[in-house]
Amino acid sequence: YLKSAPGKGIWFSNHGHLRLEAFTDADWAGLRDDRRSTSGYCTFLRGNLVTWRSKKQTVVARSNVEDEYRAMTQGVCELLWIKLLLKDLVVIHERSMRLYCDNKTAINIAHNPIQHDRTKHIEIDWHFIKEKLDQKLICTPFVSSENQLADVLTKELSCKQFNCIVCKMGKQNIYA
Prior knowledge:
- The strands form 2 sheets. The chain has a 5-stranded mixed sheet with strand order 4-3-2-5-6. A two-stranded antiparallel ribbon has the order 1-7.
- By secondary structure, it is α/β, with parallel strands linked by helices.
- It has a single domain, classed as Nucleotidyltransferase, domain 5.
- Helix content is 34%, strand content 21%.
- It has 5 helices and 7 strands.
- This is Copia protein.
C-alpha cells in the first residue's frame, strides 16, 4: 500500500485542544489457523494520529468481550505511556483520556463490578482498567462501528471503508 501511494502522508494540524484519545478494537477469533484474535489501537493527541499498533493476541479468547477487553487494556497502556512522555516534555495533561470502544458490554464490565464474577478470565485487565477509571485518568465512551478507526488495523475492509477511515486518521495527499 505504501509503495503505491508515495504522495500520501499524515497531516498534523492544530485542532485547538489537548485531547488525548485512543480507539481500540479486536477481531474475535479472526485467524483461521489458530483462532487467535488481532488487537489494534490508534492514539490521537490534539486530534492528530501519533501511534498505532496491531498485534496478534497471545492466547485464544473465549468471547468477543474478552477479546475487546484485552484490546482496551493495550490502549490504556499506550495512553498512559504518552501521558508520561508529555510530562517529560513539560506538557501537562490533566483531562481524562478517552478510550473509544465499539463494544457496549466491554464498556459496561469496566464500570460495573457486579459483572466482575462473570469475567474471572480477564480479572487482571479488569482491575487495571477499573483503577484508571476510578482515578478519572480515562473515560470510556462508546463509538459506533462505522466510526471505529481501529478497524483498519484489525479487519479486512472494503476499499471505500478503508479510504474513509485513513482519511479520518489524517492521511492526505501531501502534494495537493
